[in-house]
Amino acid sequence: MDQVKYTGELVHTEDMGSRSLSKETVKKLIHHSHEAKKQAYCPYSKFRVGAALLTVDNCLFTGCNVENACYNLGVCAERNAISKAVSEGYTAFKAIAIASDLSDQFISPCGGCRQFMREFGSSWDVYLSKPDGTYTKMSVNQLLPVSFGPEDLDMKKALDIPNEY
Fold first, then answer.
1. Active-site residue among 78, 88, 119, 151?
2. Residue 35 annotated as catalytic
3. How buried is 39 (Cβ within 10 angstroms: 0-12 exposed, 13-18 middle, 19+ buried)?
């Protein structure tokens, strides 16, 4: 099983049940994202990305980018970590940390990853980091304002168009 329950090593007691993480927990989450980056399979772009995802149940899932010769079939680190969590039954998240080798700017998720994160809520935290461990914190909502999510599918529509397919 790729998922690990962190009760003492990563998550501090003040973080239990809280969406606000301690600085020590954030530091460890970012560390795990940098460790995940080491597994990246990126023979084409040479752009390594790692992600560490913390569930509301304090389970950690990591992911890295996996490229493919058919470029559009590659998978980003963020989507990889989230998919691993979902495949194990976790769909509520506290935070994700993202790491790359960029030293002059914080790594930012691509538009597809932002929408993928949004599927699981807009108020959880995203830590954008640099190799030296510095980071900036944003919410999914800040990364993807005025977003479209699952709840929008239930909204009243102007016309009730029958699906004839």
1. 78
2. no
3. middle
Angle at 49 between CA 21 and CA 62, to 5 degrees: 50
The token pair that represents 121 in the structure block: 């809520």
**pLDDT higher at 106 or 5:** 106
Distance in angstroms (rounded) separating the CA atoms of residues 148 and 61: 25
Round to the nearest angstrom and report the end-to-end CA distance of the chain: 40
The Cα 108–Cα 134 span in angstroms is 14
Residue 163: pLDDT over 90 = no
Tell me how far apart the alpha carbons of residues 17 and 99 are, in angstroms, rounded to a whole number: 25
- Decide: helix, strand or coil at residue 102: coil
CA torsion sign for 68, 97, 93, 12 is: positive
Question: Nearest 10 degrees: CA dihedral of 21, 25, 31, 33?
Answer: -40
pLDDT at 10: 56
Helices marked H in 38-151 — which ranges?
A: 77-87, 111-118, 140-143
Evaluate if residue 152 carries a pLDDT over 80: yes
Biggest alpha carbon–alpha carbon distance for the chain = 56
